[in-house]
Structures are given as structure tokens and as C-alpha cells.
Structure prediction request, 161 residues.
Amino acid sequence: MCCGICCRMQPPDVDDAERKRIEAKGFKDFLERPDEGGIRWIRRKKDDSCHFLTKDNRCAIYNVRPAACRLEPFTIADYDYEKNRIEVELNFPFSSCCVGTCEEKELVSFQEIAKAAQVMVQKILAATAKDLELPVKDIRVRAETRSRILRRKMEAADLQL
Ligand code: SF4
Ligand code: SF4
Prediction:
């Protein structure tokens, strides 16, 4: 079972497809207003934890949780758009207490983590293409996507200080 730390640090961003999957389970009114970049985030409770985190540290929408949650405790570290390669790294300081990384047996398959990382990058690519009004495959979209990924990483590091 998860310790819930990730769900208390920063609730995940949600795109339209993820929102629809959660709504299809009967949940409504769970998003913050869009931020400056147009990104929607799952609402936080008064104690700053995710709206869907239960008292016993379970996720109320586990089967339809967003890609960011599927990737935890990893985060996207870099995106080499020329080689189409995504680099992930363990979120500090979660890595030392995460049962998912301390167990000897594999709790989540490498393929599942890789898929979540791909979905995360696709989401940022799509949002960037929309903002720049360019096709997703345009090199400027891919370069800006990498910049956004690096900025998000720095912002997340600041939050953990
Ligand atoms: S959606 Fe679920 S897994 Fe994701 S942060 Fe919220 S409680 Fe945690
Ligand atoms: S640190 Fe690991 S066990 Fe704790 S909430 Fe994150 S993924 Fe789950």
C-alpha cells in the first residue's frame, strides 16, 4: 500500500481525456481552475492533500488515476526530442521511503512506468502545440516541450526545499 506522500506533495495535472475517465466513474467538481498555462489540477483538500486521497492513504480513483500518478514516485527528468527518448528519475525525497522502490519484487512493471512517462510527454506536447498554434510534430513544439519539462522539474525541486 502507498504511503500517500506523493498525493500530499502536488496533486496531478489532468487533461480532457483523463477528466472524462474520472467523470465517467461518477465524480464531479474535482478540478482547480486552470493555471496561467491553461493546465487543470485536481483540487487539494484543506490539508493540501489530493481531493481523492482517502483517510487510509488510498486513491479513490485508482483505476482511472492520471498519468502523473501512474508515474510516481518517478518524474520526467528530460525529453530528448531528437532521439525521441524520455528520461525519468526518482522524485527526491520520496525515493527513500517508497515501498514501490524498496520492495525486492516488482510491484509495477517497467512497461507501465514507461507508458505513463510517454502519456505525460504527449500531454505536454499537445498543450504546447495548442499554445504555439503549431502541429505537434513541429520541431519548435518539441523544443518548447523539453523546456517546459525542465522548468517543471525545477519548480518541483523548489517545492521540495
Ligand atoms: S489521484 Fe489518486 S494517486 Fe493521484 S494524487 Fe490523487 S489520491 Fe494520489
Ligand atoms: S512514495 Fe511511493 S509508496 Fe509513497 S505515495 Fe509515492 S509512490 Fe506511493
Remarks:
- Residues 71 and 117 are 6 Å apart (CA to CA).
